[in-house]
Amino acid sequence: MSDAHPVAASIVLQADVLVLGGGPAGTWAALSAARQGARVVLADKAYCGTSGAAAASNNNVWYVSDPARHEAEFTERFLSGGSLSERSWTDALLQGAVQQLHLLAKLGYPFPKTEAGVTNYATLRGPDYMRFMRLQIKRAGVQILDHSPMLGLLDYEGRVVGAHGVSRDGGRWQVQANATVMATGGCAFMSGALGTNVCTGDGHLAAGEAGARFSGMEFSNQYGLASSHSSVTKGLPFVWSTYSREDGSEIPIIDDEPFVSVARVLAEEPVFAVFDRASKDIQHWLRSGQANAFLPFDRKGIDPFTQRFPISLLLEGTVRGTGGIRLSGRDCATDVPGLYAAGDVTSREVVVGGRTGGGSPNSAWAIVTGAWAGAAASAFAVPQRSHAPVPLRPTTDLPVFSDPQLSRQVIEQYVWPLQTNLFRNAAGLGLALDVLEKAWHEPANHAAPIAHARSARAMLYVARLGYRSGLRRTESRALHQRIDFPARSDAQQYRQVVAGVDTFTFATDAVAN
Amino acid sequence: MIELISESRCTSCNRCVEVCPTGVFDAVDGTIPVIARPDQCQTCFMCELYCPVDAMYVDPCADGHVTVSEQTLIEQGLMGSYARSLGWKKARAGGTENDLTHHLFEIGVT
Asked: Looking at the domain covering A11-220+321-394, what would its CATH class be?
Protein backbone atom coordinates (compact mmCIF):
# COMPACT_ATOMS: atom_id res chain seq x y z
CA MET A 1 0.00 0.00 0.00
CA SER A 2 1.50 3.30 -1.10
CA ASP A 3 0.98 6.75 0.42
CA ALA A 4 -2.64 7.09 1.39
CA HIS A 5 -3.46 10.80 0.96
CA PRO A 6 -3.01 13.47 -0.18
CA VAL A 7 -1.80 12.27 -3.55
CA ALA A 8 -2.05 14.23 -6.78
CA ALA A 9 -4.84 12.60 -8.77
CA SER A 10 -4.13 11.76 -12.40
CA ILE A 11 -7.85 11.96 -13.28
CA VAL A 12 -9.58 15.12 -12.02
CA LEU A 13 -13.16 15.70 -13.14
CA GLN A 14 -15.95 18.16 -12.38
CA ALA A 15 -19.59 17.12 -12.53
CA ASP A 16 -22.97 18.17 -11.22
CA VAL A 17 -23.72 14.68 -9.93
CA LEU A 18 -21.27 11.92 -9.06
CA VAL A 19 -22.76 8.43 -8.81
CA LEU A 20 -20.77 5.81 -6.90
CA GLY A 21 -21.64 2.28 -8.02
CA GLY A 22 -22.75 0.96 -11.42
CA GLY A 23 -25.39 -1.63 -10.56
CA PRO A 24 -29.15 -1.05 -10.93
CA ALA A 25 -29.43 1.75 -8.35
CA GLY A 26 -26.38 3.60 -9.69
CA THR A 27 -27.35 3.35 -13.35
CA TRP A 28 -30.94 4.44 -12.62
CA ALA A 29 -29.60 7.39 -10.60
CA ALA A 30 -27.23 8.35 -13.42
CA LEU A 31 -29.93 8.00 -16.07
CA SER A 32 -32.41 10.04 -14.06
CA ALA A 33 -29.92 12.83 -13.30
CA ALA A 34 -28.70 12.98 -16.89
CA ARG A 35 -32.26 13.13 -18.27
CA GLN A 36 -32.77 16.20 -16.07
CA GLY A 37 -29.80 17.91 -17.65
CA ALA A 38 -27.09 17.21 -15.07
CA ARG A 39 -23.49 16.46 -16.06
CA VAL A 40 -22.97 13.03 -14.52
CA VAL A 41 -19.92 10.91 -13.76
CA LEU A 42 -20.44 7.32 -12.60
CA ALA A 43 -17.57 5.41 -10.94
CA ASP A 44 -17.69 1.65 -10.37
CA LYS A 45 -15.05 -0.44 -8.60
CA ALA A 46 -15.45 -3.04 -11.36
CA TYR A 47 -17.20 -2.77 -14.74
CA CYS A 48 -20.58 -1.10 -14.97
CA GLY A 49 -22.66 -3.79 -16.69
CA THR A 50 -21.25 -6.91 -15.02
CA SER A 51 -20.60 -5.58 -11.53
CA GLY A 52 -22.67 -6.62 -8.53
CA ALA A 53 -25.46 -8.90 -7.42
CA ALA A 54 -28.04 -7.98 -10.09
CA ALA A 55 -25.88 -8.43 -13.21
CA ALA A 56 -24.97 -12.00 -12.33
CA SER A 57 -28.52 -12.99 -11.50
CA ASN A 58 -32.10 -12.90 -12.68
CA ASN A 59 -34.22 -10.14 -11.22
CA ASN A 60 -37.91 -10.34 -10.57
CA VAL A 61 -39.32 -6.90 -9.79
CA TRP A 62 -42.12 -5.98 -7.40
CA TYR A 63 -44.45 -4.82 -10.19
CA VAL A 64 -48.04 -4.23 -9.09
CA SER A 65 -49.88 -2.23 -11.74
CA ASP A 66 -53.26 -2.20 -9.97
CA PRO A 67 -53.28 0.32 -7.06
CA ALA A 68 -56.19 -1.59 -5.52
CA ARG A 69 -53.71 -4.34 -4.69
CA HIS A 70 -51.31 -2.07 -2.78
CA GLU A 71 -53.12 -2.55 0.53
CA ALA A 72 -52.75 -6.35 0.39
CA GLU A 73 -49.11 -6.14 -0.73
CA PHE A 74 -48.33 -3.75 2.12
CA THR A 75 -50.15 -5.82 4.75
CA GLU A 76 -48.37 -9.05 3.78
CA ARG A 77 -44.94 -7.40 4.06
CA PHE A 78 -45.89 -5.49 7.23
CA LEU A 79 -46.75 -8.74 8.99
CA SER A 80 -43.85 -10.84 7.67
CA GLY A 81 -41.31 -8.03 8.22
CA GLY A 82 -41.98 -7.50 11.91
CA SER A 83 -44.27 -4.44 11.56
CA LEU A 84 -41.57 -1.92 10.66
CA SER A 85 -42.63 -0.94 7.12
CA GLU A 86 -44.89 1.94 6.08
CA ARG A 87 -47.87 2.18 3.74
CA SER A 88 -46.91 5.52 2.20
CA TRP A 89 -43.42 4.30 1.22
CA THR A 90 -44.89 1.06 -0.16
CA ASP A 91 -47.43 2.98 -2.28
CA ALA A 92 -44.76 5.33 -3.59
CA LEU A 93 -42.39 2.45 -4.37
CA LEU A 94 -45.01 0.42 -6.23
CA GLN A 95 -46.16 3.46 -8.24
CA GLY A 96 -42.56 4.40 -9.00
CA ALA A 97 -41.70 0.88 -10.17
CA VAL A 98 -44.55 0.88 -12.69
CA GLN A 99 -43.50 4.29 -14.00
CA GLN A 100 -39.80 3.41 -14.37
CA LEU A 101 -40.38 -0.06 -15.87
CA HIS A 102 -42.65 1.48 -18.48
CA LEU A 103 -39.87 3.97 -19.23
CA LEU A 104 -37.48 1.02 -19.63
CA ALA A 105 -39.83 -0.51 -22.20
CA LYS A 106 -40.01 2.82 -24.05
CA LEU A 107 -36.22 2.93 -24.14
CA GLY A 108 -36.35 -0.45 -25.88
CA TYR A 109 -35.63 -3.09 -23.22
CA PRO A 110 -36.84 -6.42 -24.67
CA PHE A 111 -39.28 -7.51 -21.95
CA PRO A 112 -40.74 -11.00 -22.36
CA LYS A 113 -44.39 -11.30 -23.31
CA THR A 114 -47.00 -13.85 -22.34
CA GLU A 115 -48.58 -16.07 -24.99
CA ALA A 116 -51.48 -13.58 -25.00
CA GLY A 117 -49.06 -10.81 -25.92
CA VAL A 118 -49.09 -9.09 -22.51
CA THR A 119 -45.72 -7.60 -21.51
CA ASN A 120 -44.17 -9.16 -18.39
CA TYR A 121 -42.59 -6.12 -16.77
CA ALA A 122 -41.68 -8.07 -13.63
CA THR A 123 -38.75 -10.03 -15.06
CA LEU A 124 -35.36 -8.49 -15.81
CA ARG A 125 -32.60 -10.92 -16.75
CA GLY A 126 -29.47 -9.67 -15.00
CA PRO A 127 -26.76 -9.74 -17.68
CA ASP A 128 -29.13 -8.33 -20.32
CA TYR A 129 -30.61 -5.71 -17.99
CA MET A 130 -27.32 -4.30 -16.76
CA ARG A 131 -25.79 -4.30 -20.23
CA PHE A 132 -28.84 -2.37 -21.43
CA MET A 133 -28.53 0.13 -18.55
CA ARG A 134 -24.87 0.75 -19.38
CA LEU A 135 -25.82 1.52 -22.97
CA GLN A 136 -28.63 3.85 -21.86
CA ILE A 137 -26.47 5.93 -19.53
CA LYS A 138 -23.76 6.23 -22.17
CA ARG A 139 -26.37 7.46 -24.64
CA ALA A 140 -27.56 9.95 -22.04
CA GLY A 141 -24.04 11.37 -21.84
CA VAL A 142 -22.90 9.90 -18.51
CA GLN A 143 -19.13 9.56 -18.21
CA ILE A 144 -18.27 6.11 -16.82
CA LEU A 145 -15.14 5.35 -14.81
CA ASP A 146 -14.80 1.55 -14.76
CA HIS A 147 -12.39 -0.25 -12.44
CA SER A 148 -12.26 2.81 -10.22
CA PRO A 149 -12.87 1.91 -6.57
CA MET A 150 -13.74 4.81 -4.29
CA LEU A 151 -11.57 5.38 -1.23
CA GLY A 152 -13.58 8.16 0.42
CA LEU A 153 -15.76 11.23 0.04
CA LEU A 154 -14.69 14.85 -0.32
CA ASP A 155 -15.91 17.50 2.09
CA TYR A 156 -16.37 21.26 1.99
CA GLU A 157 -17.71 22.84 5.18
CA GLY A 158 -19.80 19.83 6.17
CA ARG A 159 -21.14 19.14 2.67
CA VAL A 160 -20.19 16.16 0.54
CA VAL A 161 -18.72 17.53 -2.69
CA GLY A 162 -17.51 14.44 -4.52
CA ALA A 163 -15.20 11.51 -3.95
CA HIS A 164 -11.72 10.23 -4.63
CA GLY A 165 -10.36 6.81 -5.43
CA VAL A 166 -7.87 4.67 -7.23
CA SER A 167 -7.72 3.56 -10.87
CA ARG A 168 -6.76 0.17 -12.24
CA ASP A 169 -3.26 1.39 -13.14
CA GLY A 170 -2.69 2.52 -9.56
CA GLY A 171 -3.22 6.23 -10.34
CA ARG A 172 -5.71 8.32 -8.42
CA TRP A 173 -8.99 9.85 -9.48
CA GLN A 174 -10.98 12.68 -7.97
CA VAL A 175 -14.42 13.93 -8.97
CA GLN A 176 -15.79 17.18 -7.62
CA ALA A 177 -19.59 17.33 -7.69
CA ASN A 178 -22.26 19.34 -5.92
CA ALA A 179 -24.24 16.18 -5.26
CA THR A 180 -23.06 12.61 -4.77
CA VAL A 181 -25.27 9.50 -4.96
CA MET A 182 -24.03 6.51 -2.99
CA ALA A 183 -25.15 3.36 -4.81
CA THR A 184 -22.42 0.91 -3.90
CA GLY A 185 -24.73 -2.00 -3.01
CA GLY A 186 -25.03 -4.08 0.11
CA CYS A 187 -22.26 -5.92 1.93
CA ALA A 188 -22.04 -9.72 1.61
CA PHE A 189 -18.65 -10.03 3.33
CA MET A 190 -16.96 -11.83 0.41
CA SER A 191 -18.88 -15.00 1.24
CA GLY A 192 -18.93 -16.00 -2.43
CA ALA A 193 -22.69 -15.52 -2.90
CA LEU A 194 -23.38 -14.97 -6.61
CA GLY A 195 -21.84 -11.78 -7.96
CA THR A 196 -21.40 -10.22 -4.52
CA ASN A 197 -17.65 -10.29 -3.93
CA VAL A 198 -17.57 -6.66 -5.08
CA CYS A 199 -20.22 -5.83 -2.45
CA THR A 200 -17.89 -5.12 0.46
CA GLY A 201 -19.48 -2.12 2.18
CA ASP A 202 -17.10 0.49 0.74
CA GLY A 203 -19.95 3.00 0.51
CA HIS A 204 -21.14 2.29 4.05
CA LEU A 205 -17.73 3.17 5.43
CA ALA A 206 -17.30 6.33 3.36
CA ALA A 207 -20.83 7.51 4.19
CA GLY A 208 -20.34 6.71 7.88
CA GLU A 209 -17.12 8.73 7.95
CA ALA A 210 -19.00 11.67 6.42
CA GLY A 211 -21.64 11.46 9.16
CA ALA A 212 -24.42 9.41 7.55
CA ARG A 213 -26.60 7.35 9.87
CA PHE A 214 -27.72 3.75 9.36
CA SER A 215 -30.96 1.94 10.13
CA GLY A 216 -31.87 -1.72 10.59
CA MET A 217 -28.31 -3.00 10.68
CA GLU A 218 -29.44 -5.80 13.01
CA PHE A 219 -31.34 -7.23 10.01
CA SER A 220 -28.17 -7.92 8.02
CA ASN A 221 -27.99 -11.67 8.34
CA GLN A 222 -29.79 -13.15 5.34
CA TYR A 223 -28.25 -16.33 3.91
CA GLY A 224 -28.70 -17.81 0.44
CA LEU A 225 -29.10 -21.49 -0.40
CA ALA A 226 -26.67 -22.96 -2.93
CA SER A 227 -25.55 -26.41 -3.93
CA SER A 228 -22.32 -27.05 -2.03
CA HIS A 229 -19.12 -25.68 -3.62
CA SER A 230 -21.14 -23.50 -5.98
CA SER A 231 -21.63 -19.72 -6.02
CA VAL A 232 -25.16 -19.83 -7.36
CA THR A 233 -27.39 -18.52 -4.58
CA LYS A 234 -30.55 -18.45 -6.65
CA GLY A 235 -33.57 -18.95 -4.45
CA LEU A 236 -36.34 -19.60 -6.96
CA PRO A 237 -35.77 -23.32 -7.72
CA PHE A 238 -35.61 -23.99 -3.97
CA VAL A 239 -39.32 -23.09 -3.76
CA TRP A 240 -39.86 -26.65 -5.07
CA SER A 241 -37.20 -28.30 -2.92
CA THR A 242 -37.40 -31.09 -0.37
CA TYR A 243 -34.64 -31.11 2.24
CA SER A 244 -33.17 -34.16 3.94
CA ARG A 245 -30.44 -35.39 6.25
CA GLU A 246 -27.69 -37.75 5.15
CA ASP A 247 -29.83 -40.77 6.22
CA GLY A 248 -32.64 -39.56 3.92
CA SER A 249 -35.02 -38.36 6.65
CA GLU A 250 -36.91 -35.25 5.58
CA ILE A 251 -36.28 -31.91 7.27
CA PRO A 252 -39.56 -30.15 7.97
CA ILE A 253 -39.84 -26.43 7.15
CA ILE A 254 -41.07 -24.86 10.39
CA ASP A 255 -39.88 -21.25 10.00
CA ASP A 256 -41.27 -18.33 7.97
CA GLU A 257 -38.02 -18.36 6.02
CA PRO A 258 -37.25 -21.92 4.78
CA PHE A 259 -33.49 -21.28 4.92
CA VAL A 260 -33.74 -20.91 8.72
CA SER A 261 -35.18 -24.42 9.07
CA VAL A 262 -32.36 -25.72 6.89
CA ALA A 263 -29.83 -23.74 8.94
CA ARG A 264 -30.94 -25.37 12.19
CA VAL A 265 -29.78 -28.73 10.84
CA LEU A 266 -26.90 -27.48 8.69
CA ALA A 267 -25.25 -25.92 11.74
CA GLU A 268 -24.73 -29.51 12.97
CA GLU A 269 -24.69 -31.89 9.98
CA PRO A 270 -24.86 -32.01 6.15
CA VAL A 271 -28.16 -31.20 4.43
CA PHE A 272 -29.32 -32.33 1.00
CA ALA A 273 -31.91 -30.90 -1.37
CA VAL A 274 -33.77 -32.04 -4.45
CA PHE A 275 -36.22 -29.95 -6.50
CA ASP A 276 -38.62 -32.88 -6.64
CA ARG A 277 -41.79 -30.87 -6.17
CA ALA A 278 -41.37 -29.10 -9.52
CA SER A 279 -43.63 -30.48 -12.27
CA LYS A 280 -42.29 -30.85 -15.82
CA ASP A 281 -43.91 -27.51 -16.71
CA ILE A 282 -42.32 -25.76 -13.75
CA GLN A 283 -38.93 -27.28 -14.63
CA HIS A 284 -39.27 -25.88 -18.15
CA TRP A 285 -40.31 -22.42 -16.92
CA LEU A 286 -37.49 -22.33 -14.36
CA ARG A 287 -34.88 -23.23 -16.95
CA SER A 288 -36.16 -20.59 -19.36
CA GLY A 289 -35.68 -17.81 -16.84
CA GLN A 290 -32.91 -19.08 -14.57
CA ALA A 291 -30.25 -20.50 -16.89
CA ASN A 292 -27.39 -19.94 -14.48
CA ALA A 293 -29.22 -21.66 -11.62
CA PHE A 294 -28.68 -24.91 -13.50
CA LEU A 295 -25.04 -24.47 -14.48
CA PRO A 296 -23.72 -26.17 -11.32
CA PHE A 297 -25.89 -29.20 -12.07
CA ASP A 298 -25.67 -29.43 -15.85
CA ARG A 299 -21.89 -29.08 -15.80
CA LYS A 300 -21.53 -31.85 -13.20
CA GLY A 301 -24.07 -34.22 -14.76
CA ILE A 302 -26.61 -33.98 -11.91
CA ASP A 303 -30.40 -33.84 -12.45
CA PRO A 304 -31.47 -31.64 -9.51
CA PHE A 305 -35.14 -32.54 -10.05
CA THR A 306 -34.54 -36.22 -9.28
CA GLN A 307 -31.11 -36.51 -7.64
CA ARG A 308 -30.40 -34.99 -4.26
CA PHE A 309 -27.30 -32.86 -3.77
CA PRO A 310 -25.54 -31.37 -0.71
CA ILE A 311 -26.29 -27.71 0.01
CA SER A 312 -24.65 -24.79 1.79
CA LEU A 313 -25.80 -21.41 3.04
CA LEU A 314 -23.77 -18.39 1.95
CA LEU A 315 -24.05 -15.13 3.85
CA GLU A 316 -25.80 -12.46 1.79
CA GLY A 317 -25.45 -9.85 4.53
CA THR A 318 -27.12 -6.57 3.68
CA VAL A 319 -27.43 -7.45 -0.02
CA ARG A 320 -30.55 -9.45 0.76
CA GLY A 321 -30.76 -8.48 4.40
CA THR A 322 -32.36 -5.13 4.85
CA GLY A 323 -30.17 -2.68 6.84
CA GLY A 324 -28.25 0.26 5.39
CA ILE A 325 -27.90 4.03 5.14
CA ARG A 326 -30.94 5.78 6.59
CA LEU A 327 -32.76 7.89 4.03
CA SER A 328 -34.30 11.05 5.44
CA GLY A 329 -37.08 11.20 2.85
CA ARG A 330 -38.24 10.18 -0.59
CA ASP A 331 -35.72 12.48 -2.24
CA CYS A 332 -33.24 9.83 -1.00
CA ALA A 333 -31.22 12.42 0.89
CA THR A 334 -29.12 11.13 3.76
CA ASP A 335 -28.34 12.90 7.03
CA VAL A 336 -25.37 14.57 5.29
CA PRO A 337 -25.88 17.58 2.95
CA GLY A 338 -24.94 16.79 -0.64
CA LEU A 339 -25.03 13.02 -0.10
CA TYR A 340 -27.89 10.96 -1.55
CA ALA A 341 -28.18 7.17 -1.48
CA ALA A 342 -30.06 4.46 -3.38
CA GLY A 343 -30.50 0.71 -3.64
CA ASP A 344 -29.03 -1.98 -1.42
CA VAL A 345 -26.63 0.40 0.37
CA THR A 346 -29.70 1.98 2.01
CA SER A 347 -32.10 0.61 4.60
CA ARG A 348 -35.14 -1.01 2.98
CA GLU A 349 -37.02 -1.40 6.27
CA VAL A 350 -39.66 1.15 5.20
CA VAL A 351 -40.92 -1.32 2.58
CA VAL A 352 -39.95 -4.79 3.86
CA GLY A 353 -39.29 -4.27 7.58
CA GLY A 354 -36.76 -6.64 9.10
CA ARG A 355 -37.33 -9.44 6.62
CA THR A 356 -35.27 -10.03 3.47
CA GLY A 357 -35.80 -7.57 0.66
CA GLY A 358 -34.33 -10.24 -1.61
CA GLY A 359 -36.09 -10.91 -4.84
CA SER A 360 -38.62 -8.49 -6.12
CA PRO A 361 -38.70 -5.71 -3.44
CA ASN A 362 -34.96 -5.01 -3.67
CA SER A 363 -35.06 -4.88 -7.47
CA ALA A 364 -37.93 -2.38 -7.37
CA TRP A 365 -36.22 -0.42 -4.59
CA ALA A 366 -32.98 -0.09 -6.58
CA ILE A 367 -34.82 1.21 -9.65
CA VAL A 368 -37.10 3.63 -7.84
CA THR A 369 -34.71 5.01 -5.22
CA GLY A 370 -32.10 5.28 -7.98
CA ALA A 371 -34.47 7.37 -10.08
CA TRP A 372 -35.53 9.48 -7.07
CA ALA A 373 -31.97 10.04 -5.90
CA GLY A 374 -30.78 11.00 -9.38
CA ALA A 375 -33.60 13.51 -9.81
CA ALA A 376 -33.11 15.07 -6.37
CA ALA A 377 -29.32 15.19 -6.73
CA SER A 378 -29.71 16.89 -10.09
CA ALA A 379 -32.19 19.44 -8.74
CA PHE A 380 -29.81 20.19 -5.86
CA ALA A 381 -26.62 20.36 -7.92
CA VAL A 382 -27.44 21.99 -11.26
CA PRO A 383 -28.41 25.44 -9.86
CA GLN A 384 -25.00 25.58 -8.12
CA ARG A 385 -23.11 25.03 -11.36
CA SER A 386 -22.02 28.67 -11.78
CA HIS A 387 -20.39 28.79 -8.34
CA ALA A 388 -16.61 28.91 -8.23
CA PRO A 389 -14.86 25.61 -7.40
CA VAL A 390 -14.42 25.13 -3.67
CA PRO A 391 -11.33 23.90 -1.83
CA LEU A 392 -11.74 20.20 -1.15
CA ARG A 393 -10.53 17.89 1.49
CA PRO A 394 -11.26 14.25 2.25
CA THR A 395 -13.87 13.68 4.97
CA THR A 396 -11.20 11.92 7.01
CA ASP A 397 -7.66 13.32 7.13
CA LEU A 398 -6.19 10.00 6.04
CA PRO A 399 -8.26 7.19 4.53
CA VAL A 400 -7.92 4.33 6.95
CA PHE A 401 -7.18 0.79 5.89
CA SER A 402 -7.16 -2.70 7.39
CA ASP A 403 -5.21 -5.83 6.67
CA PRO A 404 -7.14 -7.91 4.10
CA GLN A 405 -5.94 -11.26 5.46
CA LEU A 406 -6.80 -10.41 9.05
CA SER A 407 -10.19 -8.99 8.04
CA ARG A 408 -11.05 -12.09 6.02
CA GLN A 409 -9.97 -14.41 8.81
CA VAL A 410 -12.06 -12.60 11.43
CA ILE A 411 -15.09 -12.38 9.15
CA GLU A 412 -14.92 -16.07 8.21
CA GLN A 413 -14.73 -17.02 11.85
CA TYR A 414 -17.21 -14.56 13.41
CA VAL A 415 -19.49 -13.19 10.69
CA TRP A 416 -20.18 -16.04 8.25
CA PRO A 417 -21.11 -18.72 10.83
CA LEU A 418 -24.79 -19.47 11.38
CA GLN A 419 -24.10 -20.15 15.06
CA THR A 420 -23.05 -16.54 15.66
CA ASN A 421 -24.87 -14.48 13.06
CA LEU A 422 -28.20 -16.26 12.60
CA PHE A 423 -28.83 -17.91 15.97
CA ARG A 424 -27.84 -14.96 18.13
CA ASN A 425 -27.21 -14.37 21.80
CA ALA A 426 -25.40 -11.74 23.85
CA ALA A 427 -22.37 -13.95 24.53
CA GLY A 428 -21.80 -14.82 20.86
CA LEU A 429 -22.30 -11.29 19.58
CA GLY A 430 -20.15 -9.88 22.39
CA LEU A 431 -17.25 -12.25 21.70
CA ALA A 432 -17.44 -11.51 17.97
CA LEU A 433 -17.43 -7.77 18.66
CA ASP A 434 -14.33 -8.04 20.85
CA VAL A 435 -12.48 -9.72 17.99
CA LEU A 436 -13.84 -7.29 15.37
CA GLU A 437 -12.83 -4.27 17.49
CA LYS A 438 -9.33 -5.66 17.92
CA ALA A 439 -9.00 -6.13 14.15
CA TRP A 440 -10.41 -2.61 13.61
CA HIS A 441 -7.54 -1.15 15.64
CA GLU A 442 -4.78 -3.23 14.00
CA PRO A 443 -2.61 -1.24 11.59
CA ALA A 444 -2.93 -2.16 7.91
CA ASN A 445 -0.44 -4.32 6.04
CA HIS A 446 1.38 -1.92 3.75
CA ALA A 447 1.97 -4.53 1.05
CA ALA A 448 -1.74 -4.96 0.25
CA PRO A 449 -3.36 -3.25 -2.76
CA ILE A 450 -4.96 -0.05 -1.50
CA ALA A 451 -8.52 -0.82 -2.69
CA HIS A 452 -8.46 -4.26 -1.06
CA ALA A 453 -7.20 -2.78 2.20
CA ARG A 454 -10.03 -0.25 2.12
CA SER A 455 -12.66 -2.96 1.45
CA ALA A 456 -11.17 -5.04 4.26
CA ARG A 457 -11.85 -2.15 6.63
CA ALA A 458 -15.32 -1.55 5.18
CA MET A 459 -16.37 -5.14 5.89
CA LEU A 460 -15.16 -4.85 9.48
CA TYR A 461 -17.18 -1.64 9.74
CA VAL A 462 -20.41 -3.16 8.45
CA ALA A 463 -19.97 -6.20 10.71
CA ARG A 464 -19.50 -3.91 13.72
CA LEU A 465 -22.61 -1.88 12.81
CA GLY A 466 -24.60 -5.12 12.48
CA TYR A 467 -23.51 -6.72 15.71
CA ARG A 468 -23.67 -3.51 17.80
CA SER A 469 -27.23 -3.01 16.55
CA GLY A 470 -28.02 -6.68 17.14
CA LEU A 471 -26.77 -6.56 20.71
CA ARG A 472 -29.06 -3.61 21.49
CA ARG A 473 -32.24 -5.12 20.10
CA THR A 474 -33.10 -7.39 23.03
CA GLU A 475 -35.96 -9.23 21.34
CA SER A 476 -36.60 -11.45 18.33
CA ARG A 477 -38.13 -9.79 15.28
CA ALA A 478 -38.06 -10.91 11.64
CA LEU A 479 -34.47 -11.84 10.61
CA HIS A 480 -33.04 -10.83 13.98
CA GLN A 481 -33.55 -13.89 16.20
CA ARG A 482 -32.09 -13.85 19.72
CA ILE A 483 -31.85 -17.19 21.51
CA ASP A 484 -31.65 -15.26 24.79
CA PHE A 485 -34.67 -13.07 23.92
CA PRO A 486 -36.90 -15.38 21.87
CA ALA A 487 -40.08 -13.26 22.10
CA ARG A 488 -41.03 -10.09 20.28
CA SER A 489 -41.19 -6.99 22.49
CA ASP A 490 -43.93 -4.50 21.58
CA ALA A 491 -41.85 -1.80 23.27
CA GLN A 492 -39.19 -2.30 20.56
CA GLN A 493 -41.44 -1.81 17.55
CA TYR A 494 -39.20 0.90 16.16
CA ARG A 495 -36.41 1.19 13.63
CA GLN A 496 -33.02 1.38 15.24
CA VAL A 497 -30.67 4.10 13.97
CA VAL A 498 -26.91 4.02 14.49
CA ALA A 499 -24.17 6.55 13.72
CA GLY A 500 -20.41 6.66 14.22
CA VAL A 501 -17.16 5.13 13.04
CA ASP A 502 -14.93 4.27 16.01
CA THR A 503 -17.72 4.55 18.57
CA PHE A 504 -21.45 4.48 18.00
CA THR A 505 -24.53 6.40 19.11
CA PHE A 506 -28.06 5.07 18.82
CA ALA A 507 -31.50 6.56 18.27
CA THR A 508 -34.89 5.25 17.16
CA ASP A 509 -37.33 6.11 14.37
CA ALA A 510 -41.01 5.54 15.06
CA VAL A 511 -42.97 3.56 12.47
CA ALA A 512 -45.50 5.93 10.90
CA ASN A 513 -49.03 4.62 10.39
CA MET B 1 -13.81 -20.77 -10.97
CA ILE B 2 -12.18 -19.77 -14.23
CA GLU B 3 -10.22 -22.76 -15.50
CA LEU B 4 -9.58 -22.18 -19.16
CA ILE B 5 -8.87 -19.64 -21.87
CA SER B 6 -8.63 -21.66 -25.06
CA GLU B 7 -5.40 -20.77 -26.87
CA SER B 8 -6.80 -22.00 -30.17
CA ARG B 9 -10.05 -20.00 -29.94
CA CYS B 10 -8.97 -16.79 -28.14
CA THR B 11 -8.50 -13.80 -30.46
CA SER B 12 -6.87 -11.58 -27.80
CA CYS B 13 -9.75 -9.10 -27.88
CA ASN B 14 -9.25 -8.66 -24.12
CA ARG B 15 -12.99 -8.23 -23.50
CA CYS B 16 -12.64 -10.56 -20.47
CA VAL B 17 -10.00 -8.27 -18.99
CA GLU B 18 -12.43 -5.38 -19.33
CA VAL B 19 -15.61 -7.00 -18.00
CA CYS B 20 -14.37 -9.23 -15.17
CA PRO B 21 -15.74 -7.64 -11.98
CA THR B 22 -12.93 -8.92 -9.77
CA GLY B 23 -9.84 -8.24 -11.89
CA VAL B 24 -8.90 -11.85 -12.59
CA PHE B 25 -7.33 -11.30 -16.04
CA ASP B 26 -4.42 -9.25 -17.32
CA ALA B 27 -3.86 -8.31 -20.94
CA VAL B 28 -0.48 -9.34 -22.35
CA ASP B 29 1.17 -7.59 -25.30
CA GLY B 30 1.22 -9.75 -28.41
CA THR B 31 -0.60 -12.75 -26.98
CA ILE B 32 -3.78 -13.90 -25.24
CA PRO B 33 -4.75 -12.61 -21.78
CA VAL B 34 -3.51 -14.44 -18.74
CA ILE B 35 -5.50 -15.70 -15.71
CA ALA B 36 -3.36 -13.57 -13.40
CA ARG B 37 -5.37 -13.74 -10.18
CA PRO B 38 -7.39 -16.99 -10.36
CA ASP B 39 -8.22 -16.93 -6.65
CA GLN B 40 -10.13 -13.66 -7.06
CA CYS B 41 -12.62 -15.38 -9.41
CA GLN B 42 -16.13 -15.27 -7.93
CA THR B 43 -17.63 -17.78 -10.38
CA CYS B 44 -20.16 -15.29 -11.81
CA PHE B 45 -19.75 -16.62 -15.39
CA MET B 46 -19.70 -13.09 -16.85
CA CYS B 47 -16.47 -13.62 -18.83
CA GLU B 48 -18.05 -16.57 -20.63
CA LEU B 49 -20.99 -14.45 -21.74
CA TYR B 50 -18.83 -11.59 -22.99
CA CYS B 51 -16.37 -13.85 -24.86
CA PRO B 52 -17.27 -13.55 -28.56
CA VAL B 53 -15.64 -16.88 -29.51
CA ASP B 54 -16.63 -19.19 -26.60
CA ALA B 55 -13.01 -19.51 -25.56
CA MET B 56 -13.57 -19.48 -21.79
CA TYR B 57 -14.72 -22.06 -19.28
CA VAL B 58 -15.80 -21.31 -15.72
CA ASP B 59 -16.21 -24.45 -13.66
CA PRO B 60 -19.14 -24.25 -11.22
CA CYS B 61 -16.85 -25.27 -8.35
CA ALA B 62 -16.38 -21.93 -6.59
CA ASP B 63 -14.22 -22.92 -3.65
CA GLY B 64 -11.28 -24.60 -5.35
CA HIS B 65 -9.69 -25.16 -8.72
CA VAL B 66 -10.30 -28.30 -10.77
CA THR B 67 -8.43 -29.65 -13.76
CA VAL B 68 -10.30 -29.49 -17.06
CA SER B 69 -9.56 -30.74 -20.56
CA GLU B 70 -10.55 -28.46 -23.44
CA GLN B 71 -11.20 -31.45 -25.69
CA THR B 72 -13.59 -33.03 -23.16
CA LEU B 73 -15.41 -29.73 -22.55
CA ILE B 74 -15.92 -29.33 -26.31
CA GLU B 75 -17.17 -32.92 -26.62
CA GLN B 76 -19.60 -32.35 -23.73
CA GLY B 77 -20.85 -29.17 -25.37
CA LEU B 78 -19.91 -27.05 -22.36
CA MET B 79 -17.82 -24.35 -24.05
CA GLY B 80 -20.23 -21.43 -24.42
CA SER B 81 -23.17 -23.43 -23.04
CA TYR B 82 -24.31 -20.66 -20.68
CA ALA B 83 -24.44 -18.11 -23.49
CA ARG B 84 -26.38 -20.53 -25.68
CA SER B 85 -28.91 -21.29 -22.93
CA LEU B 86 -29.57 -17.53 -22.54
CA GLY B 87 -29.69 -16.87 -26.26
CA TRP B 88 -26.56 -14.71 -26.39
CA LYS B 89 -24.58 -15.09 -29.62
CA LYS B 90 -20.98 -13.97 -30.17
CA ALA B 91 -21.23 -11.88 -27.00
CA ARG B 92 -24.33 -10.12 -28.27
CA ALA B 93 -27.23 -10.11 -25.80
CA GLY B 94 -30.43 -11.86 -26.80
CA GLY B 95 -33.14 -14.22 -25.72
CA THR B 96 -34.95 -12.36 -22.94
CA GLU B 97 -38.16 -12.60 -24.95
CA ASN B 98 -38.13 -16.38 -24.41
CA ASP B 99 -38.26 -16.08 -20.62
CA LEU B 100 -41.33 -17.95 -19.34
CA THR B 101 -41.12 -16.80 -15.71
CA HIS B 102 -44.58 -15.22 -16.05
CA HIS B 103 -46.05 -18.73 -15.78
CA LEU B 104 -44.58 -18.96 -12.28
CA PHE B 105 -46.25 -15.67 -11.36
CA GLU B 106 -49.54 -17.01 -12.71
CA ILE B 107 -49.38 -19.98 -10.30
CA GLY B 108 -48.80 -17.61 -7.38
CA VAL B 109 -45.00 -17.57 -7.00
CA THR B 110 -43.65 -14.12 -6.17
From this structure: alpha beta
